[in-house]
Design a protein that fits this description.
There is one protein chain. It is built from six helices and eight strands. By secondary structure, it is α+β, with helices and mostly antiparallel strands. An eight-stranded mixed β-sheet has the order 1-2-3-4-5-6-8-7. Helix 1 crosses helix 2. The longest helix has 13 residues. It is globular, with a radius of gyration of 18 Å.
């Protein structure tokens, strides 16, 4: 049993719940060190026991949001810190070299990523939005944009870690997460619970085939 599994099992025994619930809570935790105290774990366990567990509130510490998952730390970035990877990964071989999004500095927009040493090796941007689920019916939603992982680290799970951490955080404020996904990434998103919505299209900025994808809070 790995150290994290043992820790989850121990906390579960203290709160009379399944270790999976503790793991879900720790995955969503707003944490700033490796030591998670009983007050925090108790809060997470209480939340994951209820249908609205994804609404785990932030614990005010005055420090940036972080999620500790496996050996990586997903943390808030500035928009500018996402630009190099957006250019390297998302604009390679495309007509556009623009890396800034109009929504980068809107209230509520959050940029999340993973650092490796002094560099940023995975990025994502989460934008308050709406999702049209029918005529005249718009739901609160969060749009995911700018998912990118450094080329030399692709295939090692960093993208999934950033995606899951950001999605869990987003689901605390909206029931829907959606994105304009490249067709080459559709299998990746399907593994993380997203489904395709509608017909495909060619993105005007990249000239690459895309589909809309969506995941509803469960």
């Amino acid at each position: 049993m790995h150290d994290q599994d043992r820790r989850c099992a121990w906390w579960a025994s203290q709160f009379g719940t399944d270790p999976v619930n503790v793991r879900m809570g720790l995955h969503a935790v707003v944490a700033h060190d490796d030591e998670v105290g009983p007050d925090r774990v108790g809060l997470f366990v209480d939340r994951v026991r209820s249908p609205g567990w994804a609404t785990v509130p932030s614990i005010p510490t005055g420090r940036p949001w972080r999620s500790f998952v496996a050996d990586y730390v997903v943390e808030e970035l500035t928009a500018e810190e996402t630009f190099p990877l957006r250019l390297e990964v998302l604009r390679r071989g495309t007509p556009s070299r623009a890396v800034a999004f109009a929504e980068d500095d809107l209230p509520g927009t959050v940029h999340l990523g993973i650092r490796d040493g002094d560099g940023v090796v995975a990025v994502s941007t989460w934008i308050p939005s709406t999702w049209s689920s029918g005529p005249d019916l718009a739901e609160p939603a969060v749009q995911l944009r700018g998912m990118a992982t450094a080329a030399h680290l692709q295939g090692r799970g960093l993208g999934g870690i950033v995606l899951d951490a950001g999605r869990i955080r987003a689901e605390g404020s909206a029931p829907v997460v959606w994105a304009r996904a490249r067709d080459t990434a559709l299998v990746f998103y399907a593994r993380h619970g997203f489904t395709i919505d509608g017909d495909g299209f060619v993105d005007e900025h990249t000239a690459i085939p895309h589909h809309l994808i969506i995941r509803r809070r469960r």
